UniProtKB/TrEMBL annotation:
It comes from the Bacteria. GO terms for molecular function: glutamine synthetase activity. The lineage of its organism: Bacteria, Pseudomonadati, Bacteroidota, Flavobacteriia, Flavobacteriales. It comes from Flavobacterium noncentrifugens. InterPro entries: Gln-synt_C, Gln_synt_N, Gln_synth/guanido_kin_cat_dom, Gln_synth_cat_dom, Gln_synth_gly_rich_site, GS_Type-3, GSIII_N. Residues 179-616 form the GS catalytic domain. Pfam families: Gln-synt_C, Gln-synt_C-ter, GSIII_N. Gene3D superfamilies: 1.20.120.1560, Glutamine synthetase/guanido kinase, catalytic domain. Residues 84-174 form the GS beta-grasp domain. This is Glutamine synthetase. GO terms for biological process: glutamine biosynthetic process.
Amino acid sequence: MSTLRFQALKEASNRRPSKFEEADRKSNIFGANVFNDKAMKQFLTSDAHKGVKDAVQHGTKIDRKLADYIAMGMKEWALSKGVTHYTHWFQPLTGTTAEKHDAFFETSYDGSDPVEKFGGGQLVQQEPDASSFPNGGIRNTFEARGYTAWDPTSPAFIFGTTLCIPTVFISYTGEALDYKTPLLRALNAVDEAATDVCKYFDKNVKKVTATLGWEQEYFLVDMALANSRPDIIMTGRTLLGHTSAKGQQLDDHYFGSIPTRALNYMRELEQECMYLGIPVKTRHNEVAPNQFELAPIFEETNLAVDHNSLLMDVMQKVAERHDFKVLFHEKPFKGVNGSGKHNNWSLATDTGVNLLSPGKTPMSNLQFLSFFINTIKAVDTYESLLRAAIATASNDHRLGANEAPPAIISVFIGQQLTKVLAELEGVSTGKLSPEEKTDLKLNVVGKIPDVLLDNTDRNRTSPFAFTGNKFEFRAVGSSANCANAMTTLNTIVAKQLKDFKKEVDALIDEKGLKKDEAIFNVLREYIKQTKNILFEGDGYSEAWEQEAAKRGLSNFKTTPLALKAKVSQQALDLFKEMNVMNHVEVEARYEIELEEYTKKIQIEGRVLGDIARNHVIPTAIRYQNTLIENVRGLKEIFGSDFENIAKEQIVLIKEISSHIEGINRKVEAMTEARKTANVITDAQEMAEAYCDDVKPHFEEIREHCDKLELLVDDETWTLTKYRELLFTR
Ligand code: ADP
Ligand code: MG
């Protein structure tokens, strides 16, 4: 009896949407649980408040005494909201967030004088027992421990009854052990380089901020149904299951009316986000059944990354109240679309200018073009590194799977900007005649705002697309921490802007060119050099793969191959030069990601082997026995005529046997491949062995299992089916 499946189905079909009423209008509750400016004004002395603001805006250090005052105010604020504990909240390289709660509550040694305490020391630094976080050998090498340190640029917030203080996580020798540290360094690098370039156009610019607006895609599956599938519980995706007769072919889910249970979940989630200061704005159904998307208003990148990490945690917690499980995996179901997390990215000045948005004057448009073309150039130079930044075992299912960007990195800019670049390519070398300058300003650079207004040709197949006033990095996976992609993107753009500045300055100083002439000259060369990375066609097509190969673009379809770019000499030099990561840090990350890949595939292999042998085969045998019984009965009644009458059953019995044999043989082969892979000592080779020798068995095993699902009596089948997982609402 397949009790678990039917119990789960009964539970799921009896569900009613959980009741939910909004507490107040959004603008009234936004940021209520964040130690933001408003709270600081109320709970901090003006000196302490200024100290935090200076730290955020100018990176000024906060001394111990000031930290004491800030901690005191923060504690009072938290206690006024019923908070009992505090935690340093950080993002180790596990991909999730980490927290260890400590109570504010303290007593004297004899248990007297109970009091709530929280000092500057506890705010600024903590030492979690961090030996179990991935460190890629850093801590072993240096025999140093890790500590967390307050990041005042991301405000503290209250979740439940805990005060969460965003922190970096580093070893005592200074190596980053988390996602945030390199990200902050990359944001610093891009700030410096971009501010320098901005000064060509506006001397008043003092700071450039990278902005990020992520779009989080996810699946909602009924909790009972999800819990009935060991593969979903253990790996976040279905390792087997025959596709349901109806999938997404009718396009009836995308942007459709949101199912009530899901909608009530989203409403409560959005309210939680409001309290936490996460400015979520958009919600809609996505392409696949039970797939949805949530997008915020964009923010400064460090904050946006924190908010996305926090959101993923909050999403799962709120889902429990609505009897849902959220699947963040990039490909939870075969045969329907997977999930991504588009990273919309731009640069903004402290004077309020979006540097990737065309302006009103020819000069501001030249500024736009400088940032636009430099971004393209950065992607062109570092395409394989950008690919490596989004490489994970789960994202491999998505990239190049004819629904998501291919594993080839290219840039889409639209017809009109393609024309603008073509015209700029014709700019004369060296000094420009007054006529040429006027023509450029009036007819090329001056026309940009008009053309962008009708720049509506959106190419959904491009991994990196310009969408009017920002670039959209679409290849990022739905389960990823955006920091990996954002660290890389901001670092390569920083490096490119730095080089651009050098080249322009050289033309001004050595060739005596005017500033705008120098800029036009450098941009012209960049346009010539970067043609290979620009692609406007269908990124899903076979033809593009061939074309891209001719152009010399990399096409790493699997994570182990893609990750190598992380430790290329080019990458090591880049991260070092831009002060984002030293060699040890880069190499540690590379090791960690390889290991994570290997472990993920290893776990999937074990779970698949277990389900195939211990769920699928016994079920198939049970059903086969029923058939055998039936044939035996027919023989008793009809004698020699039975063979004709029981023909179908006999065919089925044989088919079932052959699939059982297939499963056993292939699980055996997979296990052998794992054993061979497990003795490899080199992390790269081991990951490749798992990728090339272990993983290919998954599909073969699955095929037999899925065929059996079609043959076996539905009443007997133990595993919850695709149609049930995807269409129960
Ligand atoms: P879509 O791409 O789905 O059509 P939009 O273009 O409206 O949707 O924006 C998607 C995301 O891009 C949103 O999260 C939005 O906040 C973000 N976004 C818009 N402008 C910027 C910007 N200048 N920098 C970073 N993100 C931005
Ligand atoms: Mg978008």
